[in-house]
């Protein structure tokens, strides 16, 4: 997949390959996003042009409202997932105040017509231009018939619309199963293994302390059945997110620690991806280390059951 980074103002007159483009921020790339992207890929195949995605970075709320955003996915993860879906060209537009001030007409002229986009695909609630004044209903007017458009209706799970906001809410509630249904796969957190307190090894459960990528939302505190992807394999385990109240009284700093089954290797400074399959329990303050160890053993057995691993 070719990646083209665009910074406003972009140069006009450059030659861009004709493309069908899916438009959106695509945080998390949930089921609704995939429907939009796959539709764009299918239309591109019919028209024998390039299948493209146009996304934006950073999140608009960070620029327009000066608020920090809880991201579901890093830009690098987004690139990998889009490539795996079959996207051939990715436009990453730097979202800035100058870019946000473009009128709907200017956005289409400068970022779609100028880039030789022949057909766009977007969700029913996609907006563009200053203050989101442009909608899919007004697209044909602003494109003046030069670009075709396909609107994809909302994707629902039961009665709830699948959205990045809905995924965040599920994760904040610790409902990793619901998040996985919305995403079409378990929620992932990427990060680097760093040195921690090394207390786990003293109680028989050595853990990998994962420093999550900046601004990425972590699921609610608790213990989860997880799979951790290393550079050469994937290993089942249990993860704890929280402040370790059994050992700390006034600790407000959350950590992500993963106990990998049947694993004793040194993986400090390695890049890992932790996939959250199911929440086993919330974080508990135990009265003793012995109580903690006993409960961890139960957590391990439950995770083994979830993954179909025999503990015999």
Automatic annotation (TrEMBL):
CDD domains: FAD_synthetase_N (cd02064). Catalyzes the phosphorylation of riboflavin to FMN followed by the adenylation of FMN to FAD. InterPro entries: FAD_synthase, Riboflavin_kinase, Riboflavin_kinase_bac, Riboflavin_kinase_bac/euk, Riboflavin_kinase_dom_sf, Rossmann-like_a/b/a_fold. Transmembrane segments: none annotated. Belongs to the ribF family. Its EC number is 2.7.1.26, 2.7.7.2. Coiled coil: none annotated. It catalyses: FMN + ATP + H(+) = FAD + diphosphate; riboflavin + ATP = FMN + ADP + H(+). It is an enzyme of class 2 (transferase). One of its GO terms (molecular function) is riboflavin kinase activity. Pathway: Cofactor biosynthesis; FAD biosynthesis; FAD from FMN: step 1/1; Cofactor biosynthesis; FMN biosynthesis; FMN from riboflavin (ATP route): step 1/1. GO terms for biological process: FAD biosynthetic process; FMN biosynthetic process; riboflavin biosynthetic process. Keywords: ATP-binding, FAD, Flavoprotein, FMN, Kinase, Multifunctional enzyme, Nucleotide-binding, Nucleotidyltransferase, Transferase. Residues 182-308 form the Riboflavin kinase domain. This is Riboflavin biosynthesis protein. It holds the Pfam family Flavokinase. Signal peptide: none annotated.
